[in-house]
Amino acid sequence: MGNSALKAHLETAQKTGVFQLTGKGLTEFPEDLQKLASNLRTIDLSNNKIELLPPLIGKFSFLKSLALNNNKLNALPEELCKLKKLETLHLNGNHLRQLPAAFGQLSALKTLSLSGNQLRTVPTQLCGLRHLDVVDLSKNQIQNVPDSVGELQAIELNLNQNQISQISVQISHCPRLKVLRLEENCLELSMLPQSILSDSQISLLAVEGNLFEIKKLRELEGYDKYMERFTATKKKFA
After folding, report:
1. pTM over the 0.90 mark
2. Which CATH number fits domain 1-99: 3.80.10.10, 3.40.50.360, 3.40.50.2300, 1.10.645.10?
3. Residues of the chain with pLDDT under 50
4. Which end of the chain, C or N, has fewer beta carbons within 10 A?
């Protein structure tokens, strides 16, 4: 990737507010981008080999969308949490084990994708985010869903392809949660809180590929109530 090519990309980005440089084998975040810190609304550096996101990321105060899918990130800097306008954050296919402590300060965040990382639990920092719509934590190493999840404001939570064997009953208290995906985990039927069916907002529960037959779900108390929500939602979108 020559300097002239990067320069051309920077000039385009200055006009459009979008900097996209994917699949170019970049090993580091282009420092020259800081010159555009007040212009950029979107940065996409997916499919590169970036190992570190530098603290200067905190300077991009107007950034709305950041994508770093399929890089080699092991950690995220605390400075990332200064991005008060950030609405979309895609970090699929990295090596992240945790999120920065201050992650809950990303107050505008609506969509968060962390599929294919090395998270072992649902990060408690997510519970402070009031505008979250979709959280994708699929293909991680999550083994249990903690009590704090009851505070989560998301509409959709994707936990497919983890190692979940325990779920806190608090998940049924999520005020906006409509879609819960738990496919291909390690759940016994007895470990699925019945309140998800009888006493939650959840209208789509995906649990195929666990340690029970799907038809057994229908025998649980509260299944009728769940089906009422499921059908009502289907009608709304039909």
Report:
1. yes
2. 3.80.10.10
3. none
4. C
